[in-house]
Amino acid sequence: MDFEERHLLALQRYFGEKGTLYFSLIHKGVKFNQHVGIIQVDSLIIEVLPKTDQTNDEEHWKKLLIGMLRAVKTLNVQTSSSSDLKLKSNSILDLYLEIFVAELEQLVHKGLIKQYRRQEENRLALKGKLIFTKHIQKNLIHQEQFYVNHQTYDRQNSFNQIIFKALLLVQNINSSVALQSRIGSLLLNFPELDDIKVCEDTFTRLQFNRKTECYREAINISMLLLLNYHPDIIRGRNHVLALMFDMNSLWERFVLCSLKKYAPEDYLIKGKMKKTFWESELIFRCNCATCFGDVVPQKKG
Questions:
Q1: What are the pLDDT digits (tens) for 128-148?
Q2: Deepest in the core among 35, 136, 222, 269, taking most CB within 10 A?
Q3: CA distance to 117, 118, 122, 151, per residue, from 131 (Å)
């Protein structure tokens, strides 16, 4: 698919008044900055690949970028749940979607978690606490019912709601025929869940425990997809999804992970901690150890 004017307009709306770290606007076009990855506008996928020399081999640079993402565990394809993946996809987006679908298939196989929650509703039997005011308002005629607040144990919880919302998004943006049937099968296994509004606070409030630890990889990919998806509310067609990574940060993490892997055993490789106090966009999420910055080799002992 060719880059058309409607795609440019969608990127201009995405840029907005506040701008974006991924690219800058030029006359009848965009100029990408130090970020690499993919930007999908409707069905058009724009790949931004790293390049350090004059070689114009796109497949070489694509494999290089995927290899770096694997090394720093941003693209986790080494887990047992992902061992059967046939990684023949044409873009990083296809790889993420395939891993996400595989993670959900494993969760469905194990069984979606259930948690206790409070619920208010009309019931034919008295259970829990009777909400007297609302009971009078709603059941003045139907006196056989009780409006109560009670505790229930079901799959209606934040973990399932987030991955279900992400699965619906994946169904809309997926272009792989092989994944489409698997996505449809997964949707049949999900119960009807509430549609929640998702922001960064939604994910920071999640608390993983022994029961929910198996959700971590699926939640990480859900966060990456949901927080970087910008629907076209004007025309309802040219939606924008940006999965972009700061190349400077990615390179530093890659060098650090490589040194840790190949350094002699008597060397301890550590990275300096970096805390971001304010960031306007989700730039880079890594599942590896909290290491970043300058490499400081030290002798063990």
A1: 778 878 878 888 777 778 888
A2: 222
A3: 17, 13, 10, 14
CA-nearest of 188, 243, 194, 275 to 69 is: 243
* Structure tokens, 268: 């301890």
Q: How far apart are the first and last CA of the chain?
A: 58
Structure tokens at 141: 């005629």
Please name which of 19, 44, 98 lies closest in space to residue 66, comparing C-alpha atoms.
Answer: 98
Q: Are residues 137 and 248 in the same domain?
A: no
**What contacts 245, CB < 8 A, 6 or more positions away?**
35, 36, 37, 69, 74, 283, 284
Indicate whether 217 and 269 sit together in one domain. Answer: yes
DSSP calls for 3-68: --HHHHHHHHHHHTTT--SSEEEETTEEEE-SEEEEEEETTEEEEE----SS---HHHHHHHHHHH
Same domain, 243 and 264: yes
Q: Which two tokens stand for residue 124?
A: 């034919």
Q: Is the pLDDT of residue 107 over 50?
A: yes
Tell me which residue of 52, 135, 39 sits closest to 91, measured CA to CA: 39
Query: Domain check: are 120 and 84 in the same one?
Result: no
Characterize the bridge pairing of strands 146-154 and 240-246.
unpaired
